[in-house]
Specification:
Number of strands: 15
Distance between the termini: 48 Å
Order of helices and strands: HHHEEEHEHEEHEHEHEEEEEEEH
Helix content: 25-40%
Strand order of the largest sheet: 6-5-4-7-8-9-10
Shape: globular
Structural class: alpha/beta
Number of helices: 9
Length: about 400
């Protein structure tokens, strides 16, 4: 068995056995009544787990159940917790000594989500990522690659979720060489655009694939600078892969559409469009959402998604825009198994995508409103000021 797919065990097999069964499902996009029934039962166990350990969550369960039932499943209790709640409150469902990993959601200033993970929670989330990468054939232990990471270079005190995720993704193929776009200076990070360009030119002459991971805006600024410098397009080696995440926060005025952006990546770097994928995720909800070859964010078997009206929070129908509501029973450390994100999204049925994946998918349309809260991408975007 590939090491990233090795079994992990819930904290209490008697109380969380159905959560274990759900997270052990090997096919990341399985669907149907059996999967739905298991998901609902696992949510019931996770609700009970947090209610016994978190007075905050127990109080939420005292509220009347939603009528009609929420779109995440008939009879499934999903009290709504805004992701922003975790920017102001630390709420644990495990003893602090059982915290295995502490990650934050934002940059060097501003409000930060403080998320705490026991070993089961973070390992099960990592295994979800591994199962999706394995589904697409992206775990290649025999094939070394060169990495260009559009994320923060690790530093001793760095606890950002994006940095943790991008460095974990490097475990799926051995590294011949790694370049970080955001270089640690000792007092912060700086965007090294010329270092990125030099790495791409060097990697294009190598004989191993390239994997580009991280914030899409940084990659776009790199390609823009290459064009401005009059550099010819590159052809990265066959098998190269681009997996992006984090959005364009802070540079919405310079954001281009996905189709145009992906076409630019193909034109400037020679990476086919089906090898360029965006992702969605957050430190408050670590379940991975990775685009299919047709660039749809399909919902994996370990989670469910709904969209809620921005005024009433009632569940909306397919195609309507509202707050993205994400649900998964995997997390035992913090009652963050039913989180309303600050993102506007629309949900769509699986058969509305040409790919063979059967599960629902969603489109993110941007952040809702104007907030003083900052994400990793916002902080990172500020490092690009002066590049225009």
């Amino acid at each position: 068995m590939k090491p990233h797919l090795a079994p992990v065990e819930v904290p209490d097999p008697a109380a969380l056995g159905l959560v274990q069964r759900l997270c052990d499902l090997a096919e990341p996009y399985a669907d149907g009544p059996v999967a739905d029934e298991l998901f609902a039962a696992a949510m019931g166990q996770t609700n009970a787990w947090h209610a016994r350990r978190s007075p905050f969550f127990a109080a939420l369960l005292q509220d009347p159940a939603e009528t009609p039932a929420p779109t995440v499943g008939e009879g499934v209790r999903t009290p709504l917790v805004p992701a922003a709640f975790f920017k102001r409150h630390e709420v644990l469902s495990v003893p602090r000594e059982e915290v295995f990993l502490h990650l934050t959601s934002s940059g060097t200033t501003g409000q930060k989500s403080q998320m705490f993970f026991d070993e089961w929670t973070i390992r099960s989330a990592q295994r979800m990522v591994a199962r999706i990468f394995d589904h697409y054939g992206w775990i290649t232990p025999e094939q070394p690659v060169n990495y260009l990471l559009y994320s923060y270079e690790p530093a001793p005190s760095l606890k950002l979720g994006t940095s943790f995720t991008d460095n974990y993704l490097c475990d799926f193929a051995p590294a011949r060489h790694t370049t970080h776009a955001l270089r640690h200076t000792g007092s912060g990070h700086e965007f090294d655009v010329h270092g990125c360009i030099a790495a791409l030119r060097r990697y294009a002459e190598d004989d191993v694939p390239v994997r580009i991971l991280g914030f899409p805006a940084f990659l776009y600024f790199t390609l823009e600078r290459m064009r401005a410098m009059g550099l010819p397009p590159l052809t990265l080696p066959e098998g190269s892969l681009v997996v992006l995440g984090g959005g364009w926060k802070g540079h919405a005025d310079r954001q281009i559409g996905k189709e145009a952006f992906y076409a630019e990546v193909t034109e400037r770097l020679g990476v086919p469009g089906d090898r360029v994928r965006d992702t969605f995720g957050s430190v408050e909800h670590c379940v991975p959402y990775i685009e299919c070859a047709h660039h749809r964010l399909h919902v994996p078997v370990w989670s469910r998604a709904a969209v809620r009206d921005t005024g009433t929070l009632r569940p909306l129908s397919y195609g309507e825009r509202g707050f993205l509501h994400l649900v998964s029973p995997y997390i035992t450390s913090v009652p963050a198994h039913s989180v309303v994100m600050g993102d506007l999204a629309s949900l769509h049925p699986g058969d509305a995508c040409p790919c063979p994946l059967p599960t629902d998918w969603f489109t993110v349309h941007g952040r809702a409103g104007v907030s003083r809260n900052r994400s990793c991408a916002v902080a990172a975007a500020e490092l690009m000021k002066g590049m225009s």
